[in-house]
Every structure is written in structure tokens, then in C-alpha cells.
Amino acid sequence: MRLEFRHVSKVFGSKAAVDNVSLSIEGAGFIGVIGRSGAGKSTLLRMINRLGDASSGQILFDDADILALSGRDKRDWQARCAMVFQQFNLVPRMDVASNVLHGLLGRRSTLSTLFNLWSEADIRRALGILDRLGIAEQAAKRAEALSGGQQQRVAIARALMQDPAIILADEPIASLDPMNAQVVMDALKRIQVEDGRMVIANLHTLDTARRYCDRVIGMRDGRVVFDGRPDQLTTGVARDIYGADASFSEAATSTEIGALGDDQEYAAAMLGD
Ligand SMILES: Nc1ncnc2c1ncn2[C@@H]1O[C@H](COP(=O)(O)OP(=O)(O)OP(=O)(O)O)[C@@H](O)[C@H]1O
């Protein structure tokens, strides 16, 4: 499994949100993308599963040009790289199990989806995935009745239903309190390791990147300014990535319980300021 960016750019008006990025990711692993707000992290991720198209360059997966895919091929690709969002994107009034089964949407007919005609095997699989994520007992509840951390685990379960090679997680813990953030990151990491999947996650905070990632990509103004192991992510390097001056403090990008002084500082960290 190999994902490769070749001189990829994405321009909005006169601004390059992603600016000439070239990199390759080989095999399973947990890749974190960090950088301040507006650095281009979401744009980069969204181009991989074609939620947003690149303005120029190539993205290859096992040598197939994924930017050239259309119709059925594009939908198949989108099923192979499932996306998890900051706001979970569940159907709030629908029960948890049905939300998970909707991960199969791209793979079955509209008619059977419309009438909720799931096979017994699919239902068993959905329940098995929920069990694996520790939320099987929530299966019959409406998604909106769950806590944020539980909802994000439902979103991860929905992604797993697609049996994706890649899981793309766009700020998966930015809406969660530190305790739930840890539960969700632990779940993502376990899935990545046990199943041998590739996870690429945009993360706001350095400590999370250091703790969970095998490799960290630092973006600033649309460019990759760091690409290395978490232990190479020194305070000086982080300062460069975040474009901060000498007053930059690690705590300002931390989600550690108790690491932050007050709510205001916490909010600033979440905004990447
Ligand atoms: N649809 C769009 N139209 C115009 N500009 C956009 C659009 N999407 C993103 N941008 C711009 O591209 C740049 C990169 O945005 P992006 O959302 O990728 O950054 P980010 O690093 O993910 O930030 P955040 O952490 O706040 O989500 C920003 O300047 C943003 O304003």
C-alpha cells in the first residue's frame, strides 16, 4: 500500500491552500498532519478521497492515478479511504446501528438502503464493530443521545464498515474534552495497528501527534515544512511549524488533562492560535 503526492496544489482564488506538496506514505501506519489553523491540513486530506479536487499535480495509490477516477471507480475509491470528521456527521435521529450500516451506502442499491434492508450478515458485522469499539450497548439508541466521544466512535465504526485501506480523520478530537479525546485516539490507534490500516489524521495538538503517530507531517501556509518521526518534533521545530515566536509554549497546543491553565487558553489551543 503506497500513497504518493506529486507536486499537488490546490488554489482558491489567488491563494494556494496546498502549495506544491510532494510526499509518499508506504504501508500501514499512523500519520499525523499538524499546523496552525488555515495551514492547509483539511484541504490536503479532502483531496485524497476526492471531496475536493486538486488544482494541479498527481495523487497515486498503488500507482493508480486517483485524481483521474470518475463515476463508479471514484465511488469505489472513496469507499477505500473512509473519512471521519470533527463534527461526527452522523444522522442524529437515527439509531446507532443504522448509522454504522450507512457506511455501506456506496456499496449497495439505493432501493435496499431506502427501505433499510440490511442483510443479517451486515447487521452482525455492524454490531461486532460497535462491540470492538466498546459501544455495543448503545446500538439501539439514537445517535444524538450519545456523548461526543461515543458519537465519534460510531463515526469510526461507520468508517470501518467500509473496510477501508485508509482512514482519513479530519480533526477527529477537536470537539471533544480531553478524556473523550483520549478514548477516541486510543480507538483509532488500536484499529490502525490491529488491522494494518493507514490512518492519516489532522491534529491540532503536538502532544497528541507525539503520542499516537509514527510519522508527523507539519504544514505551514500550504507547504510541508516538517516530515519526520515524532521524537524529532522538538519545541524549536514546532515553533517553525506553528509560525510562533519565542513565547510559543508547548502547553498552548496541548490537550493533556490539567496541562492548560484555563478555558480561554484551551480554546486558543483548539483554534491553533
Ligand atoms: N472552499 C474554500 N474556499 C476558499 N478558501 C478556502 C476553502 N477551503 C479552504 N480555504 C482556505 O484555504 C486555506 C487552508 O484551509 P484548510 O481548511 O485546509 O486549513 P486547515 O489547516 O485545515 O485549518 P483548520 O485547522 O482551521 O481546519 C485557508 O486559508 C482557507 O481559508
TrEMBL record:
SUPFAM superfamilies, from UniProt? P-loop containing nucleoside triphosphate hydrolases
Record flagged with keyword Nucleotide-binding: yes
Q: Which Pfam families match?
A: ABC_tran
How far does the signal peptide extend, from start to end residue?
none
Q: Which residues form the ABC transporter domain?
A: 3-246
Q: Which InterPro entries match?
A: AAA+_ATPase, ABC_transporter-like_ATP-bd, ABC_transporter-like_CS, ABC_transpr_PhnC, MetN_ABC_transporter-like, P-loop_NTPase
Q: Which UniProt keywords apply?
A: ATP-binding, Cell membrane, Membrane, Nucleotide-binding, Translocase, Transport
Extract the PROSITE patterns matched here. Answer: ABC_TRANSPORTER_1, ABC_TRANSPORTER_2
- GO MF terms on file? ATP binding
CDD domains in UniProt:
ABC_PhnC_transporter (cd03256)
Q: According to the lineage, what is the superkingdom?
A: Bacteria
Please give the NCBIfam families that the UniProt record associates with this protein: ABC_phnC (TIGR02315)
Family matches, as PANTHER family: AMINO ACID IMPORT ATP-BINDING PROTEIN, PHOSPHONATES IMPORT ATP-BINDING PROTEIN PHNC
Q: What is this protein called?
A: Phosphonate ABC transporter ATP-binding protein
